Amino acid sequence: MVFILFIQVLKLGYNTKIIFGMHIVDLTYWLMLLKAPYVGVRTFYKALKVFETPEQVFLNSKTRSNAYRLFRQETLDFIKRNDTSLVQADLDWAKSDGCNILSLIDKDYPEQLKSIADPPPLLYVRGDVSYLSSPQIAIVGSRNPSPSGKQNAYIFSKTLAEQGIVITSGMASGIDANAHIGALEANKPTIAVCGTGLDRVYPAKHKSLAHQISTKGALISEFCIGTESIAANFPRRNRVISGLSLGVLVVEASVKSGTMITAGLAAEQGKEVFAIPGSIHNPLSQGCHHLIKQGAKLTENIYDITDELKFKSQNTKRVYEPKAREKTHNSSSMLLKYLSYDAISVDEMVEKSSLSPQVVTQELLLLELENKIIKVNGSSYSLK
To answer: For the chain, what is the mean pLDDT?
Structure first.
């Protein structure tokens, strides 16, 4: 009966600490259960069917024979120790400004993500949690894209963001980074789904980008504080990228890549998949062409996306203009002539280039992501 109440609570939404039956659902026990050895998302939900709340797993496991059929011995030993100090770092992190840990029954947990087969029981969020429930499009693709792939990611992102759509991606090098930058340059929010704990940035060169995303949008992860970058985390991250979104746009990808995993997960979740076609001679177009053959929407402009998803644009005069990105590249190329191996500050760059501080900052970030320059002493740059 209480498990039925749990399902009802999921639909209604409450804060992480709530009255649930006769018990208080404590974030500490949600964290503890997810840290237990051999407890993944599926085992977590199986445990709720038996014990009704994470708290009860630790309070009643000694007297319930079902626990011995559900958990391995290492898990039972962990539960028996009930060492709450193991989650103190997570709880301390959540006390920091702009940091939150949302449980599946939190009112701010996004409904889109809740509807997939295996939603993360907990989401770590740095930034504005309200963006998680906004209409989102995921833009994903190769870590080593062609120049036209970078341009497409940037333009599609910027133009969609200007229509009021939140851009979601994985903050990886290449297409992901350019998608985030496009939204940021439109002065719109973007969401980065991370494959590590939010106390670290991967890749490390995206530290500045991560800060901008958390300031104007949100960084999210299902991984606890201290989790490092390991290969197994990224397919799990990919299901969250697609799960949050109404649709996934693949810009460039090889047939065997993590991007194709994301597209496949989106299709399984009943989400729309969009793919930009390219040259038959470009290996990075093969993934997109494969998806189109499988039924993905061939995408040439943002209206192929907005019309499919029935978006109502807030700015009907805005059109897709590929040449807009060329102007940005001209700006970044122009900045290169003011850079040398001696560090120069942002203020000096603004003075020499006669560009606005915002444009200079964004273009320096782009050059940094392209590995052409490095940041020195926090606010100065030099050639790499």
So the answer is: 84
